[in-house]
Amino acid sequence: MELTAPRSQLAAAVLAVPGFVVLLALAGDAIGTSVERTIIVFLISLTAIAAMGLYSGNSGILSFGHLSFMGIGAYAAALLTLPAQIKGATLPALPEWLAVIELGLLPATLTAVILTMTVAGLVGLAIWRLDGSAATISTLALLIITHGILIGWRDVTRGAQTFFGVPRDTTIWVAAAGCVISLVVARLYRDSACGLRLRAGRENAIAAAAIGISVPRERFIAFVLSAGLMALSGALIAHFLGAFSPKKFYFTDTFFLLAMLIVGGMTTVTGAVLGAVVVTLLTELLRRLEGGLDLGFVEIPQVFGTTQIGIGMLILLALMRRPEGLAGLREWEEWLIPPRRTAVDPKPLSPAESDPLDAISLTKRFGGVVATEEVSVTVTPGEIVGLIGPNGSGKTTLLNQLSGVLRPSEGAITKGGKDLVHLPPHKFVDAGIARTFQNIRLFPTLSVYQNVQAAALATKGGRDAGARVAAALERLGLSGVTETMAGNLSYGDQRRVEIARALVCQPSLIFLDEPAAGMNREETDALMEILRKLNSDLGIGILLVDHDLGLINALCHRIIVLNEGKLIAEGSPEEVRRNPAVIEAYLGTSKKETR
Ligand code: ADP
Ligand code: MG
């Protein structure tokens, strides 16, 4: 697994986990009885919450379905450890091989984890393309379906009846071990190449695709991995309780785990731990109040559901006052330990190939609007092409088609003879095409470094990612702000981060949609100098949209003019400037109006 964060931070994070868990376990072991039970349940909850955070936190998709995986893990592991004698008495209809099998906790847990990951893989294949609320609702459906199966499959699960007789092998130390595994996997995943790519997708799916990230694929990996850890927590709880029924893995526990995730903050492992602590403490407190309380001067009556009501209010409070959760957006060690990245020599960012891009007769319709109409253009690496036209003339729509963000209604796009039209957007970058967006699309809660790093890790040549990131940051003059959150930068800086992110993909063509918007004169001039150098030093072709005709004339070898979706002129700056159609489009004296 390739790790993307500074070693000092990850080492601190990974070492702190067993420290924290062992301290808790020691305390529970020493105090014993009811406190020990509470701590075991806490450790198992933490195992589950880290697993849920791994998926929901990094993908940004809240999951209501993860308790299904806990349930599958619990039943699967319990079926394997349950003494054959008890199986004979309570589950007479079990298949022969399952009836006689009697495994220890460890092999049973491992088997349950693998089985659950397989199930999650199959589920993931069905839902991996779903986005946002559709994805969340699909996980809700999963919870309900799994619950139905657990209740319906009586021969194996005893249906709604209690499944009992499971050996109580989950001691406080077993729970601690499971918890350490889950927390460490979740923490390392977050800063692995996969985790960073998924977080980029969470922040902006379109931009992530534009730098070569297959967001569905990354989601799928996280989904299966987190299901495995959920199964681990299920096996632990099954062998702690000894007896349980399907409702243990349904809405009530989903609610409590989601509360932990939301209150603590789901984007970090620190948040998972904080949320688990706060919700567990509050639950314990409220449970004591549930039976009523006599304060001497006033008597609080018994109220059923005090715990749920209290936790519900806590969620509301958290959402209103601290929507990103108690822990915020960074891990504790990211706050405390300054990220010192080992210096690397920048690697020259030469494009891998130099095939021209040919677009033939691109037409894009939005309902009745024809945004581009039979536009044919060729862009060759090595040249700087200006794309101009009045507002709404189809410039952005053309770039979106050329970079795979939009599929043309009609027309063909090829590069070096290779057909691109039918490729998914994240494959365009493999063909040497990178871009920036008119309405900036950064990964705002990731650092400048991580914005560029995510792109470097998503494209070919991921090996020397560090050297490429350094080179891209240096070229765009961003070496001084690498650890700033991208969303906190000025517009001008944000636009330069977008260009660095595109550049690190080693494209042969870069499309820039109004890169100077929001920049002052000096910034614009500096940017133009950078672009000129990219072109002359590296031979990168640039397709540039801008409204500043002086700038376009000074920089571009060739200019393309769109008006009302049609290509109305193409040629050298000189030719275009004298073209009557262009003058007409720009001066706004269209025939319709003068007539
Ligand atoms: P430009 O970048 O030159 O200002 P655009 O490409 O953004 O122009 O827009 C071209 C035309 O297509 C406009 O009329 C715009 O309203 C329309 N358009 C662009 N995107 C969409 C969309 N997603 N849905 C509907 N209409 C769109
Ligand atoms: Mg535009």
Description of the molecule:
There is one protein chain. The chain is an alpha/beta fold and 595 residues long. It has 2 domains: 330 residues, ABC transporter involved in vitamin B12 uptake, BtuC, CATH 1.10.3470; 238 residues, P-loop containing nucleotide triphosphate hydrolases (Rossmann fold). 56% of the residues lie in helices and 11% in strands. The chain has a 6-stranded mixed sheet with strand order 8-9-10-5-11-12, sandwiched between helices. The protein has a 4-stranded antiparallel sheet with strand order 4-3-6-7, covered by helices on one side. It has a two-stranded antiparallel sheet with strand order 1-2. The longest helix is centred in the N-terminal third of the chain and has 27 residues. It is elongated.
Radius of gyration: 29 Å
Number of distinct beta strands: 12
Just name the CATH architecture of the largest domain: Orthogonal Bundle
* Unreliable parts: 590-595
Entry keywords:
6-stranded mixed beta sheet, alpha/beta, disordered C terminus, 595 residues, 2 domains, 25 helices, binds adenosine-5'-diphosphate, ABC transporter involved in vitamin B12 uptake, BtuC
Topology:
Blueprint: H1 7-31, H2 33-59, H3 66-81, H4 84-90, H5 96-100, H6 105-127, H7 132-152, H8 154-157, H9 172-190, H10 193-203, H11 205-210, H12 215-241, H13 251-264, H14 269-290, E1 293-294, E2 299-300, H15 306-321, H16 332-336, E3 357-366, E4 369-379, E5 384-388, H17 395-402, E6 410-415, E7 418-419, E8 433-435, H18 448-458, H19 465-475, H20 491-503, E9 509-513, H21 521-538, E10 541-545, H22 549-555, E11 558-563, E12 566-571, H23 573-578, H24 580-587, H25 591-594
Parallel strand pairs: 5-10, 5-11, 8-9, 9-10
Antiparallel strand pairs: 1-2, 3-4, 3-6, 6-7, 11-12
The protein binds adenosine-5'-diphosphate (ADP) and magnesium ion.
Adenosine-5'-diphosphate (ADP) is lined by residues 366, 369, 371, 389, 391-397.
